[in-house]
Amino acid sequence: xxxxxxxxxxxxxxxxxxxxxxxxxxxxxxxxxxxxxxxxxxxxxxxxxxxxxxxxxxxxxxxxxxxxxxxxxxxxxxxxxxxxxxxxxxxxxxxxxxxxxxxxxxxxxxxxxxxxxxxxxxxxxxxxxxxxxxxxxxxxxxxxxxxxxxxxxxxxxxxxxxxxxxxxxxxxxxxxxxxxxxxxxxxxxxxxxxxxxxxxxxxxxxxxxxxxxxxxxxxxxxxxxxxxxxxxxxxxxxxxxxxxxxxxxxxxxxxxxxxxxxxxxxxxxxxxxxxxxxxxxxxxxxxxxxxxxxxxxxxxxxxxxxxxxxxxxxxxxxxxxxxxxxxxxxxxxxxxxxxxxxxxxxxxxxxxxxxxxxxxx
Length: 361
Ligand code: NAD
Description:
Blueprint: E1 2-10, H1 14-32, E2 35-40, H2 45-51, H3 57-64, E3 68-73, H4 92-102, E4 107-114, H5 126-129, E5 133-140, E6 150-155, E7 158-163, H6 169-184, E8 189-194, H7 200-213, E9 220-225, H8 226-235, E10 242-245, H9 247-261, E11 268-272, E12 278-282, H10 299-312, H11 316-331, E13 334-335, E14 345-346, H12 349-360
Helix pairs in contact: 1-10, 1-12, 6-7, 8-9, 10-11, 11-12
């Protein structure tokens, strides 16, 4: 396959971790006979320094012309960096919001995986975390409460604020289809999370998800109320495969699910539109405190590259090879500083990339 990938190294540790992900993609390409072409674009602080804005039109056009985008992370130290003296629409994060909008990325995927080898990092008791868990939160990203009409008014001397939670059936259907498609590549279970006992938007959500489910008889669907889901994530996380939910519930639940894995340097993510196109990035930020020191854990970015192969290119075998190599490196006892534990060998960012490459070869 010929694959055109736009890379956004970004700021802080971004360039270091993207370099390792490219190394891994290159060895996969070589082994499985693919051709990967990369074009780098500037975004965030790196773009502000050169162009005065966090994202240019040309950068967006380059991203649009690719098959997928692989990103490191953007942003600097928010208390000391001059980027944060700029108005909000010119700060690094505005670049990320801008590209998500320009690429119409409405589905956000965040896997939360507890590797047996990293069980110590999990804040849950051993009898709950058991042999690990492997779930994926599929969050609607462009609708709901965060994008509805809002206002603050004063009535008879009393301040009143209103936020509106709106979804139409098309917005729900397209994310549900993504959720079921992705469940088919996994353990074939969808847990749709809503608040249908109270909210009309949730009752419509539930009805549309059930309609979509009819086209996926091989996938098991269950519904769960969001408050119960928040409890179940810490009570029995292994029960979940794909959690499908709206924007605000997904915002909260995906952070909760990430925390129960206990290791920020391991968490990949993807944002997809209604084609196969996606933007893939680690869930963590640009870690300015460790930038340029070869200390960053590149695994979240490497696993994001694996998601890119799986979800944008349907290269499941190649993605499995990356995921398995990551597990093998952990089994062999290598750790970056953030996931270090007693008896393991501490390695830097580059060496971690090399170790994963060796295991794919
Ligand atoms: P952060 O995720 O960058 O760092 C939090 C802590 O985790 C730090 O101690 C850092 O050293 C550590 N850490 C993060 N990733 C690591 C990795 N791969 N390996 C080892 N250690 C790692 O969060 P923050 O400090 O709140 O934010 C720093 C900057 O990143 C800010 O400018 C913020 O706006 C930005 N940010 C960007 C994104 C993004 O690009 N999508 C996401 C979150 C934060």
